[in-house]
Amino acid sequence: MEPSLFLLPADKISQSQSFNVGTAGAKIFLGPASDEFGYTVQQAPNYQDKWLLVGAPWSDNRKGDVYKCPVQGSSNRCDKLNLQDSVTIPDVTGVNTNMSLGLTLAPNHTGHDFLMCGPLWGQQCGDQNFYPGICSKLNPLFQLQPAFSPAIQKCTGLMDIVIVLDGSNSIYPWPPMTEFLLKLIPSLDIGPQSTQVTLAVIQYSDDQKVEFKLNRYTDRSQMLNAASKISQKYGTSTNTFAAISFASKQAFSASNGGRPEAAKVMVVVTDGESHDSYNRDSVIAECDKQGIIRFGIAVLGYYTRNNIDTKNLIQEIKSIASEPTEKHFFNVSEEAVLSTIAGTLGKRIFSIEGTGKGGDSFQMEMSQVGFSAYYSKQQDMMMLGAVGAYAWSGTVVHQKGSVATIFPFSAFEGTLQERNHSSLLGYALTTLTDGSTEYFVAGAPRSNHSGQVIIYTVNPQKQPTIVDTERGKQIGSYFGSVLCSLDVDDDKVTDLLLVGAPMYMNELKKEQGRVYLFSVTKGILSEQGFLNGPSGNENARFGIAISVIPDLDLNGFSDVVVGAPLEDQGKGVIYIYNVLDLTVLTVSQRIPGSTLNPQLKFFGRSLDSNKDLNDDTIPDISIGAYGSVVQLWSRGVAVVTAKTSFKPDKISILNKDCDSGGRKVSCFNVNICFSASFRPTNPVGPADVTYTLTLDADLKGSRVTSRGHFEVNNERYLKEKIKVSSTSQCVDRRVHVQETPDLVNSLSLKVEVEQENPDVNPVLDSFSPKAFEFFIPFTKDCGSDEVCVNDLELKVKADRQGLPAVSSPVLFSANNRELKFKVAVKNKNENAYNTQVSATFSNNLYYSSATAVITCQVTVLKKDQEVNFQITFDYSFDSQENQAVVKFEAKSDGKEENPADNSVQISIPVQFDTGVMLSTESNINFYVADSTNQVVTTVKSLDDIGPEFTFTVKVSTGIFPLSLLFLTISLPVKTKGENPLLYLTSMEPQAGGSVSCSTSLKNPPHIGEQTQTVSFREENLKGTKTLDCTSAKCEKIECILKDTEEKSDYLIKVKTRIWNGTFITVNLYLVVLPVSKPGEKADVPVGVIVGSAIGGLVLLALVVGLLYKVNSSLLLGGRFVMHQCHLQHSKAFLDCFFSL
């Protein structure tokens, strides 16, 4: 099945809300925190008792161990199993310091045994320590079974090593050569119980001397003693290749202790070029033929002391060393530092022991098998995570019986796309199943730094096939470090895979943690959302532990518990998620550890919840913390229902049979019966509940005054306690009806039940109704048949805001969003009870208010009675549709005689005010033209024209993006007498490519590039107060603004020069006019704006003031027009046209 999940965030759950995991009676086991007691926990019932197995991986110098804790009884003392020194591999030198036994505990799904692992268990080979990891099973009585280590290393194959030392005169001093031997020998696996490695030493100069043969010593201490006594041979020649040839033919011979099946290794140490290099090719060829792996060490001391170039020496020694030379060649600056490379040389020799090859063989030596473990549910096989394999790329080991299948690096290399060999594949493991095929799942939390989950199958040839993979979404989140497969309905088909990313960081930079959910289809994952869990205000590491609870609330579906050990300031919290009806995954409980014990720390770091530990058929939850383990008990579930009956079944205001405060009132009796169903069917005791009765209230609210009071307390509320069992428990109460004008709507009785004590067992089901509502009607005045036949007439009129035609669009702006309707409802026939008018409206409207025009004192609409009211909607700019549609419908509880006039639909065309604004700024506010100055008629530069006049036009957009916006700036360039006024020098749009301007005015005579002759005419402008496009000749600058963004500014900077000659030559009145302040702004509404302006010239005789004021009565250089905007529905934005 493939559930569609609805996820309710955990931060919506109150801390105090509880369901059927009880906190009362919690059992807390304490252990040594320094041992990391509580790092892992497993429920382990057997035929003797019910137990918890608790891992303490740092116990006893981090060897690790496991404790058993008795669940039943009053004791909270845990017993240490003392297994750390018993987990061994025969005939292997193990190192259990730092083993971390108990770091992994895994139950066998098909039996009652457990697997425990110490992934840091070491294996000693010579002076090398490997960490293949170790695991062992515990039977149901916690008895240790033989340990195994799938990645155990064969320390050494047979190996014969011959050291060839240069003992010629140039070697000085000699003691470093023996120190080199004394450091190299201990790094090799030599000894009476380790006969794999034998060692011989040959010293040479003019000839060769055998210091000791391969079969001379089998004891390391004897060999060290012999090596310390080797004295320098001396000699004038360095016959290196003769020594190599001697060693290859004699030293490895059977008579001298050589073994045909052993790998042959030769180490040559020399400080000078050979005197017999002519034999090099034949000697090296013979070594290659025999398969001798050669290490060459060049000691450069003699050369450096005598200032001799070392190039030829290094080349010769490299020719001796096997390929690749970077692994088989060494050089040291002098004899004294020779011993420093002994350790490195020993490791490189060790890496080829038993292989006969010069390449690396390190693959699983540091694998840490058992870092995680999971038992297959369909096969008798266990999965073991080996995060350290292949240089921390990681892999998975499948162990069936005593046969282990270790997948090679190439099996997952392409999927992991390794770059730095640190994916940690195998950090977490689980399986999925579709009923027939089992899919294996492995997490790699550091893959590509964001984490990865890999799903694969294994064929009969034990070769893995990748089925699917999912990568994490955030770097460092450790996605894939926790895996949990969930079969929701126990049909043996995996429905969900939960993937923890406990280090997921939220926007507050807190490690909140996250759990991702994936549905599963034939091994293919599909993300279904995630669980947020904590609020996010602090580090929580939510998802560091996840465990399935097999049907916690006994509704037929499995549930989940998730740990957040860093939440609540590191005290820890767990979250219980319930699965409902295969479609809903929601949180029912948030349990902070501090409510159980204020001293708890990291509560929720480990979890197990698979077994019933107190024999009530409900699985219980075990939680690991720092130095402690907590056992919580699940509780039975009760579902309480209520039923009522009224006597009489209708309220008659004419029958007043009861006394209330000395007056007769109408009344009725109500019988309320409670019953409960329980899960499981044999819970502890009945359900202790408190019920509340409320008159005239529904599930959403209540009336200000009630039309009924309970006789027992003369109140509308009544709260009492009751014990509810599977058989009905009933109570009778009398209700007095108060005088009321509302005799139409039925009087309601709301019954609410709640848990009397949150710690009792059973507990009320959180997901079942706890409020019930019942109604008793009033008798109706509709004739003897009490059937009301209505004839409602509905009339609706839209407030057109002054627009005459119905087809005229309504204009909405940021400051005017209202759309009003006047509604009239009239009844033309019998009484209409519970008359209602409903309005259905389009997505671009939302309800604002309703105002009654006529207030009726009765709730029944009588014949020929009419009600009028006004309803107001606001326009929503989130949905830019060109029609606003509202459908009104009138209805009542009666039978409608003429339904045709009961509904009205109104559709209104809509347009929008863009809210565009214009503003300007200029470099000068006035200009003085001195008539005594000489008129310049020969113009060589722009300065000869007159002063620079620069202004900037700013277009500010409103709440809509616009596809195209046209801006036209008209400049007065000449008087009617052809005298020049303004000379345009440049236009500079300030918004990049989104604004472009064009004009034919820009420096047309090319003044400044060539000399121009101009003339000015006398002209009478005494009657002209303003020069604009009606009194002067204007030219246009046309700009296009494309794809403007909302609430953004676009600037156009215009530079001009004022012609001095014109204002000196023409005749003017002296008129003093006020100068507007620069930078003033104005709105640009829809439609034609008459009389607004943005810039121009006012002539003041010899004083010229440059005025810039939008919406001014002084017209200065052009009229501003904005044409109608049209909504382009397919583009979801407006097209507008402006001109200036």
From TrEMBL:
GO terms for molecular function: integrin binding; metal ion binding. The chain crosses the membrane at residues 1058-1076, 1088-1108. SUPFAM superfamilies: Integrin alpha N-terminal domain, Integrin domains, vWA-like. The keyword Membrane applies. Its main location: membrane. It is found in: Membrane. GO terms for biological process: cell adhesion mediated by integrin; cell-cell adhesion; cell-matrix adhesion; integrin-mediated signaling pathway. Keywords: Calcium, Cell adhesion, Disulfide bond, Glycoprotein, Integrin, Membrane, Metal-binding, Receptor, Repeat, Signal, Transmembrane, Transmembrane helix. Residues 160-345 form the VWFA domain. FG-GAP repeats lie at residues 23-78, 411-461, 463-527, 528-586, 589-649. It is a single-pass type I membrane protein. Belongs to the integrin alpha chain family. This is Integrin subunit alpha 2. The lineage of its organism: Eukaryota, Metazoa, Chordata, Craniata, Vertebrata.
